[in-house]
Amino acid sequence: MSKITRVPGQAKGRCRYVTSAGLVWSVATSEGAGDNVAQQTHTTLANLEANLLGAGSDKHHILEAVVYLGDMDRKAEMDEVWCAWIPDDGWPNRACVGADLAAGDLVEIKVTAKLLE
Asked: How many domains does one find in the chain?
């Protein structure tokens, strides 16, 4: 049986990341930082990268990502930042979904990554 490690987040009932069986699951938002999708995507990805590094992984090891956008008409703004952030040799399986996000949030990103060996 694999050990499960949970690192609490700021909000009750949530974790910054969870690790088990060589994998890490993490989610991040920008906590309303900035009023456009590009700014929030930059901040969200920085928060996500910090979570991955804290867990013992990095953006090169992301296997799957789900991007939640408050407005799918602004997907191109998010894609520009996302594509600049992801390494050319590390494209994960990714979905982008329109969602009703918390007030002030335009972007939320959830990933599954492999832990570093």
From this structure: 1
Count CB neighbours of 7 within 10 A. Answer: 14
Q: In whole angstroms, what is the distance from residue 109 CA to residue 73 CA? A: 17
The CATH number for 21's domain is: 3.30.1330.40
- The two three-digit tokens of residue 85, written as one number: 């952030």
Helix (H) or strand (E) holding 104, with range, is none
pLDDT tens-digit readout, 19-59: 999 999 999 998 877 789 999 999 999 999 999 999 999 99
Element (H, E) at 112: strand 107-114
Domain that includes residue 71, residue range: 5-114
